[in-house]
UniProtKB/TrEMBL annotation:
Biased composition (Acidic residues): 447-458
Membrane topology, as annotated: Multi-pass membrane protein
InterPro entries: NEMP_fam (IPR019358)
Residues spanning the membrane: 165-186, 198-215, 230-248, 260-277
Protein name (database record): CG9723-PA
Low complexity bias: start-end ranges: 419-428
Annotated segments matching region Disordered: 410-458
Keywords tagged on the record: Membrane, Nucleus, Signal, Transmembrane, Transmembrane helix
Organism: Drosophila mojavensis
Length: 458
């Protein structure tokens, strides 16, 4: 028998089931919160038990819902088969039991997440006792965080593409995770460019991906058992990646930055898409985020102004105390700014003085004198009292309390109430100019009294 005939015979035998007997099967439809204990059986792997979740209608309230099938078994002496229906699971079971059946990326999972909206079935074949339970979470916090992270990456992709710190951190993380693939890529340059070598390189990349997958599945055990080796690996590969990124330098070309931005936006979109089993809602959300991100500012301003016109905000009126405090504060600030401008080189003092009727008053104001004379304040107070004659006492009282420069002259009866105003109203002390005026009046009266005494002595 030739080698070719032997190979054909082995291939044909690979499709023949290892066990001639038909497997014993049963199907159980699980509800949320169900837990089933399966006892040991003497038939071994010839028994297939299928557990199905029927699914439910889609709803926006189930956007972050998670359904998880948990398999609790003592060892790894079991096999899993997946499918949409029990018939599909049985078909996979039959195919996998053939001779020379080997899948490079096969794995045994004890926690299997199922779609809440579609029917899914999991077949388990084992002679060991085990437990099957179906857990449910209406709001999965991790999926919500994944959605938020995806939107944040998409929205800030333009700034991250121009950030040097993000460039070095992303380069180091990529170098640490893909160091094995980098070694394969560098080694491939040493092989001659022949058709046979391309097959070797493709096989090398497949083995590299397989090793990365096994590392990700057993990352916890590796971190606990080989902590020192993992630490040195991170330090060496991270340092080499940083030096390579430092040698290349952050991208300065706008087109390169645009490419990085588009890649980050694609990554963010993928994170958002896979953050929920409700994929149609995720697609709609991505369209809204993309439209809002690339929407012109003029359209956003129009929408904002239209919303304010349609739903105007409620304005809160100021109280008497707030109105008075704001008047005092803003007047003092404006006068200080005017005085600073007058004394600054930007002000043409001589041109201003030539256009004023009283230049001396302007000069005294620039040197710190009050902007109002006592006579002007008294005239203002008398004018207010004349205008309030015959008015309601409460309205007159409120108006006088909110007047910043009013001083009672005794002519208006309501003005006498200002002396007994509530404690919440700030006390208005007389201005510096009024104090100087009173001092001058007292000095003049003392001088006249001295003259009268001299005349009496004579």
């Amino acid at each position: 028998m030739s080698y070719l005939q032997l190979i054909v015979l082995l291939v044909l035998l690979s499709f023949k089931p290892a066990s001639a007997g038909r497997p014993q099967t049963d199907t159980v439809y699980l509800a949320v919160g169900t837990s089933i204990d399966i006892t040991a059986n003497s038939y071994g792997n010839n028994v297939l038990r299928t557990f199905c979740y029927p699914g439910k209608p889609r709803s926006l309230f189930s956007l972050f819902e998670t359904v998880e099938l948990v398999l609790s078994i003592a060892n790894d002496d079991y096999s899993e088969y997946g499918g949409r229906t029990p018939e599909e699971v049985l078909e996979h079971y039959t195919e996998k039991r053939s001779l020379f059946s080997f899948t490079l990326f096969s794995q045994k999972r004890q926690n299997i997440q199922l779609s809440p909206f579609e029917q899914q079935c999991i077949g388990v074949s084992s002679k060991q006792p085990y437990n099957i339970s179906l857990k449910h979470a209406q709001l999965d916090i991790w999926r919500l965080l994944q959605l938020s992270l995806g939107i944040a990456v998409f929205w800030s992709a333009g700034r991250l593409a121009k950030n040097s710190l993000f460039y070095y951190m992303a380069g180091m993380v990529l170098g640490i995770c893909a160091s094995l693939l980098v070694i394969i890529a560098v080694t491939s340059k040493l092989f001659p460019r022949r058709p046979m070598m391309y097959g070797v390189l493709i096989g090398g990349w497949t083995i590299g991906l397989y090793i990365l997958k096994q590392l990700s599945d057993n990352i916890r055990v590796i971190l606990i058992t080989y902590r020192e080796y993992v630490l040195w690996y991170l330090v060496i590969t991270g340092l080499i990646s940083f030096l390579v990124c430092y040698r290349i330098g952050p991208p300065r070309n706008p087109r390169s930055q645009n490419i990085i931005m588009w890649v980050l936006q694609a990554v963010g979109s993928a994170i958002v898409y896979f953050s929920s089993w409700h994929t149609s809602a995720c697609v709609v959300l991505l369209v809204l985020v993309c439209s809002a991100h690339y929407c012109p500012n003029s359209v956003l301003q129009y929408v904002r102004s239209f919303y304010k016109r349609r739903f105007p905000p409620k304005r809160r009126l100021l109280t008497q105390e707030e109105y008075y405090e704001q008047a005092v504060t803003e007047t003092a600030r404006s006068l200080a700014e005017l005085r600073d401008y007058v004394n600054s080189p930007n002000c043409r003092q001589w041109s201003v003085i030539s256009a004023l009727r009283d230049p001396m008053r302007f000069a005294s104001f620039a040197n710190g004198a009050p902007h109002l004379f006592d006579e002007e304040i008294e005239d203002y107070s008398r004018t207010i009292e004349d205008s309030l004659e015959g008015a309601d006492e409460e309205e007159a009282f409120d108006f006088l309390q909110s007047s910043m420069y009013y001083r009672p002259t005794g002519r208006l009866r309501n003005a006498q109430r200002t002396s007994s105003s509530p404690a919440s109203y700030p006390r208005r002390a007389p201005s510096h100019g009024r104090q100087l005026g009173n001092n001058n009046v007292n000095a003049r009266n003392d001088y006249e009294d001295d003259d009268d005494d001299d005349e009496f002595m004579d």
